[in-house]
Design a protein that fits this description.
This protein is of the alpha/beta class and about 400 residues long. The protein folds into two domains: about 140 residues, Aspartate Aminotransferase, domain 1 (Alpha-Beta Complex); about 230 residues, Type I PLP-dependent aspartate aminotransferase-like (Major domain) (Aspartate Aminotransferase, domain 2). Helix 2 runs antiparallel to helix 11 and helix 12 runs parallel beside helix 14. It is globular and about 60 Å long. The model has no long low-confidence stretch (mean pLDDT about 95). Pyridoxal-5'-phosphate binds next to helix 4.
Length: about 400
């Protein structure tokens, strides 16, 4: 019913992803395919586009507040898709999930404190920590012999016991390694953080993408005690390709933490909402389900393309993702350092990924592939890499 195959001319909108390619690679980059920044090469659901048209037609764009209908759409979606019953007064609408994470860190830490992150991880977590004057404690993920990333709980316990450690930023599901953390894993994280008085900031922006056989657990659904120690950040922006509309939700059930969050937001001019962002997010949660179902199937097809490609290559293997629309390619077998790998991908294979080293030292030798693109684009990328590998001899 929905079209995910059409390749949209990327010059038709001011895409950050494609303009970075032009900036970095110059005018001769027209043949380079960008599968880097985590937004999609698909138009959003037509139901959302229609809602935005109707909103534009009102012609009234003054200051707004969130309507009951907005909250109800959010609550209904979370309840149906994530068995998560949230109350309206737990929610603060933020202009982006990272704004939520930045604000949350300001709310629960002081400069000089330490924060746990789990590298290789979405690199703005590092910025959020550093810019809030925090020391990073890296509870590095461990890649086991089966090519599966796991948490190192012993190390987590040690890091959380550091008296300066006041917060942990958890990526659930995890960008870039694609893990959908199990109930058991989340339970252990929560237990350790509660024991040491560490507040968990759970970034759950990718929660709507789990492949068959996996189920995302929103952290606070583990129970009241866990909920009391965490802040959660969610949005339909990844799910429906709405990141440019800058509308997300911080969900905090502990009234004291919620108050600290709102005060931290107020201290930097408060939170304001965007007319089109609210309209799009509401429409997504009210009418986007079928589009998402089809998209998930399409992404599973793209994953299969990448899987077969990786299986046919020496020196490249796929870390099997359980969720997100991102895939993590282990290219260490090509025997290149980070500079050589970047040069190889960009100049020989003609593809622009988010290179693994961006996500921390433990990401060196990996590439993050964005699967949210028409299949033909992904196939072009795979054959570009295959040809470049052949030329290596
Ligand atoms: C884990 C994670 N958190 C946050 C973001 C960014 O969210 P926002 O643009 O709403 O700040 C991304 C985008 O890729 C992401 O992958």
């Amino acid at each position: 019913m929905y079209d995910f195959d059409t390749i949209i001319d990327h010059n038709s909108w001011a895409s950050e992803k494609w303009s970075e390619v032009r900036e970095v690679m110059g005018p001769d980059s027209e043949d380079v395919v960008a599968l880097s920044v985590a937004d999609m090469e698909f138009k959003t659901a037509p139901e959302i586009i229609e809602a935005l048209h109707r909103a534009a037609d009102t012609g009234i764009f003054g200051y707004e507040h969130c309507t009951d209908a907005y909250y109800e759409a959010l609550q209904t979606w979370m309840s149906k898709h994530h068995q998560w019953d949230i109350k309206r007064d737990w929610v603060s609408v933020t202009d982006g999930v990272m704004t939520g994470v930045f604000t949350g860190l300001r709310a629960v830490t002081h400069p000089g404190d330490a924060v746990i992150i789990q590298r290789p991880v979405y690199y703005p977590f590092t910025n959020a920590a550093v810019r809030n004057g925090l020391t990073i404690l890296d509870n590095e993920l461990v890649l086991n012999a089966q090519g599966h990333y796991e948490m190192d709980f012993e190390d987590l316990d040690l890091k959380a016991s550091n008296p300066r450690c006041t917060a942990m930023v958890l990526c659930n599901p995890h960008n870039p390694v694609g893990r959908v953390w199990s109930v058991e894993e989340l339970g252990r994280v929560a237990q350790i953080c509660i024991k040491h008085g560490v507040t968990i900031l759970a970034d759950e922006i990718h929660a709507d993408f789990a492949y068959d056989g996996h189920q995302v657990t929103m952290l606070s659904t583990l129970g009241e005690e866990v909920a009391a120690h965490c802040m959660e950040f969610t949005a339909p922006s990844k799910t429906f390709n709405l990141a440019g509309l800058i509308t997300s939700n911080a969900v905090i059930s502990n009234p004291e933490l919620k108050q600290r969050f709102d005060i931290a937001a107020d201290n930097v001019a408060g939170l304001s909402v965007n007319h089109f962002g609210l309209v799009a997010c509401q429409a997504a949660y009210e009418h986007g389900e079928q589009w998402l179902q089809e998209l998930r199937k399409y992404l599973a097809g793209n994953l299969e393309v990448l899987r077969s490609f990786a299986a046919s290559q020496q020196g490249i293997s796929l870390i099997e993702p359980e969720g997100t629309y991102l895939a993590w390619l282990d290219c260490r077998g090509l025997g290149m350092d980070s500079d050589e790998l970047r040069d190889f991908m960009r100049n020989k294979a003609r593809v622009f990924f988010d290179e693994g080293s961006l996500f921390g030292d433990s990401g060196k030798g990996f590439e993050r592939v964005n699967l949210a693109c028409p299949k033909a684009m992904l196939e072009q990328v795979c054959s570009g890499i295959a040809n470049a590998v052949k030329e290596l001899g």
